[in-house]
Write a structure and sequence with these properties.
About 45% of the residues lie in helices and about 15% in strands. The protein is of the alpha/beta class. The strands form three sheets. A five-stranded parallel beta sheet has the order 4-3-5-6-7, sandwiched between helices. The chain has a five-stranded parallel beta sheet with strand order 9-8-10-11-12, sandwiched between helices. The structure holds fructose -6-phosphate. One of its GO terms (molecular function) is carbohydrate derivative binding.
């Protein structure tokens, strides 16, 4: 039920904070991660030498964000594979591969077939799923449910942040049992996770009206590019996918470092570019590099909307608009930065008079190959 909201999409974006919060419930005890769901794997989690994550669409972008965190914390190589590409190319998997599938519906045929293939070839399978008792979790060795609640709008929003949360819990669990992070380090990261819902609330509250405002003046925009780096890169991909799906506007996401390897040729006067700017506070920050990307595209006439943390004043002279997000660690910023992009796609679609809950040609769960 919409409960007073004009659309399910608007309601579900407003539920992003809660989707993260509910996915954490019962899974953090005294600053440590507690995942009884994974007990059946016994020693496997210390023995695996590789993780393959299988997913499609938005779930694949959530998985890519997860890759940055799991590799950094648990020091295990993680490959994110589009499910429909995976089992048609004789992939290398075996008994020391943990195959994690990520699916909101748990019914996506492409992902189900990939999981079945992985099982047949000896891999152990973990399903990250938002739908109790769906086919993919039933066919997997273990399941870690996300608790985003039922998602009705066709385009996925709150499930996306819940999927990242589940992958982060998995990463911290692996880091703990494999000894790659000590207890204080885990507890500091756990605290960042627990702080996310309140920060997300802040973003939901502050980004809505401003974005609706400028969505109105850019109603006729033909193409939008999204740039991000590090874990902001999959967020750029997600922002572009949502805009295509909801507003039927051509959009592409790029890793900002890739710009000079080709995409900068697309920049001409008036091109709208949305840039996810990393925090300048981290000593290894990619902030200066992204600022210089913004300068390069502005010099060629691009209009830039920056998503940047509160207090980042260096970005001001270079951006036409700045959307602010609260301060968070480098791996936690992406969860905050995605909300304005979801709002942006929804508002542009609304400004064009489109049905944001039921975009054309799409189905909520894709149960055919
Ligand atoms: C995009 C979107 C799709 C789904 C994809 C996978 O907004 O909703 O890209 O993310 O079809 O669906 P699930 O997660 O149900 O496997």
């Amino acid at each position: 039920e919409k409960g007073g909201w004009p659309t399910f999409m608007k309601k579900e974006i407003s539920e992003e904070p809660e989707a993260v919060g509910k996915t954490l419930i019962g899974r953090i005890v005294d600053g440590a991660v507690h995942l009884p769901e994974l007990e059946s794997f016994d020693g496997l989690l210390t023995d695996i030498d590789r993780i393959v994550v299988l997913a499609c669409g938005t779930a694949a972008y959530a998985s890519l964000v997860g890759k940055y965190a799991i590799e950094s914390w648990a020091r295990i190589p993680v490959d994110v594979e589009l499910s429909h590409e995976f089992h048609y190319r004789d992939p290398v998997i075996g008994e020391r591969t943990l195959v994690v599938s990520v699916s909101q519906s748990g019914e996506t045929m492409d992902t189900l077939l990939a999981v079945q293939y992985a099982k047949k070839h000896g891999a152990r399978t973990l399903s990250i799923c938002n739908t109790q008792g769906a086919t993919i979790p039933r066919e997997s060795d273990a399941v870690l449910y996300t608790h985003a609640g039922p998602e009705v709008a066709v385009a996925s929003t709150k499930a996306f942040v819940a999927q990242i949360t589940a992958l982060y819990l998995l990463g911290l669990h692996l880091a703990t049992i494999r000894g790659t992070l000590d207890a204080p380090a885990v507890s500091a990261l756990v605290e960042e996770l627990q702080n996310l819902p309140a920060k997300l609330d802040q973003v939901v509250e502050t980004s809505g009206e401003r974005i609706a405002d400028f969505a109105r003046w850019m109603g006729d925009v033909q193409s939008v590019l999204f740039l991000g780096r590090h874990a902001g890169y999959p967020i750029a991909l997600e922002g572009a996918l949502k805009l295509k799906e909801l507003a039927y506007i051509h959009a592409e996401g790029f890793a900002a470092g890739e710009l000079k390897h080709g995409p900068i040729a697309l920049i001409e006067p008036g091109q709208l570019v949305i840039v996810i700017v990393p925090s300048p506070r981290d000593p290894n920050s990619l902030h200066p590099k992204v600022i210089s990307n913004i300068q390069e595209i502005r010099a060629r006439g691009a209009r830039v909307i920056a998503v940047a943390e509160i207090g980042d004043v260096e970005v001001l002279p270079f951006a036409d608009e700045v959307i602010r997000i609260p301060l968070a660690g480098p791996l936690f910023e992406p969860l905050l930065a995605v909300v304005p992009l979801h709002v942006f796609a929804m508002e542009l679609a609304t400004a064009k008079g489109l049905d944001v809950d039921q975009p054309r040609n799409l189905a909520k769960s894709v149960t055919v190959e």
